[in-house]
Amino acid sequence: MQLNYNQFDKYTMNAFPAKIMEEAFVPDEIIGPFFEELRKNVIRYLPICLHLQAKADALVDGQKRTVDEVTAFTLKLCQDLGPDFYNFAIPVCSEGKYLQIEKVELGKSEGSCWNDSMELKVDGSLRDTIYHAHETGHWLSGMEEGVSNARINIKELQSFFLEEMAYEELQNQGGDIAIAAQFFRSARYLQFIRMIPDSLYALAWNKGNENRATIFNDWKISNPTDYEEEFVEKPWFATNLHHSMHRHLFAAPLSVALYQAYKSANEDQQQQMLKTLYKVGSKTTLKDILNVFGIHTVAQLQNAARFAVGSITGGFEPSTVPAYRPEVC
Ligand SMILES: [Zn+2]
Asked: How many angstroms is it from 4 CA to the middle of ligand 1?
């Protein structure tokens, strides 16, 4: 089928104004080496992805949670970050003024976050805990100047950082909860990584970006699903897929490494990290965040990607988790 770029562009511009699209992109020199290192390390785990997802779903379904428990859990994470985080989070996390909660059937839970509101669809399982923490992480990036001022690729780092804290807290609780959390995390993050080839396909599809897509040319894990018909029928789908590469698909694995760097840092360094990550002003760049978490060079970025894959898959082959010693400035 002949692709109609003009039609695509019209839809793209409607969905995301050009300037926002551009600002939301992770620069090639960051996303290129990071994805390439992910690819090399993750490739042998991708075939187990769907199996893992089924197992994770069954485990989290059995872990029931009430909305009050979910809220208290997230507030505890915020308390661990500091009193200002906790105070900011109280009205944000609790149902009412900003947060709307809707009950849905098992397996259909999800979260959404906008500049002035947050919506959580809860299914009463452990998923609610993860999604509530994730969405609250988005809000915390607005502590200084308001959520709407932070660029999209930066905002996702805050949500996955808090999500990483949630997984760790659940692991610390031990027993079935810890196992469910571990499987859920591995399945969720591997699914994100698995979507990268599809996103690249959407990127190549976008007018003017054919060359840009070739920087990822080696990523030939699978032939992406044949999306062309869907793209033509629903052009916003290609945009969303393309866009997600710069958001969840990038931020989830990177946040694994950032959280590890945070845990290895001393108290002063931790404060600096939290300040840069969460009190993000309109001038804060992705590089500012990477630098304060000890990522200054391509080698350190690649190291972060290797660590992320090792951590995500570590529960299945513990011996393959590589040592990760971030250098914190
Ligand atoms: Zn998010």
From this structure: 30
Q: Tell me whether residue 172 is exposed, middle or buried, using C-beta atoms within 10 angstroms of its C-beta: 0 to 12, 13 to 18, 19 or more.
A: exposed
The pLDDT value recorded for residue 67 is: 95
55, 187 contact by CB (below 8 A): yes
| Tokens 């690249």, residue located | 200
> Distance, CA 69 to ligand 1 centroid (Å)?
21
Distance between Cα 152 and ligand 1 center (Å): 9
Tens of pLDDT, residue by residue over 143-180, are: 776 555 556 667 889 999 999 999 999 999 999 999 99
Q: For residue 319, how far is its CA from the centre of ligand 1 (angstroms)?
A: 31
Rounded distance from Cα 72 to ligand 1 centre (Å)? 20
Predicted pLDDT of residue 223? 47
**Whole-number Å distance between alpha carbons of 264 and 77:** 18
Neighbouring C-beta atoms of residue 18, cutoff 10 Å: 10
Give domain limits for the chain. Answer: 5-320
Architecture of domain 5-320: Orthogonal Bundle (1.10)
Residue 206's pLDDT is: 55
- Where do we find the tokens 């991708």? 46
Which range has the worst mean pLDDT, 7-21, 26-40, 94-108, 221-235? Answer: 7-21
DSSP string of 55-102? HHHHHHHTS---HHHHHHHHHHHHHHH-HHHHHHHHHHHSBTTTEEEE
Number of C-beta neighbours around residue 307 at 10 A: 24
**pTM (2 d.p.):** 0.84
Q: How many CB atoms lie within 10 A of CB 224?
A: 16
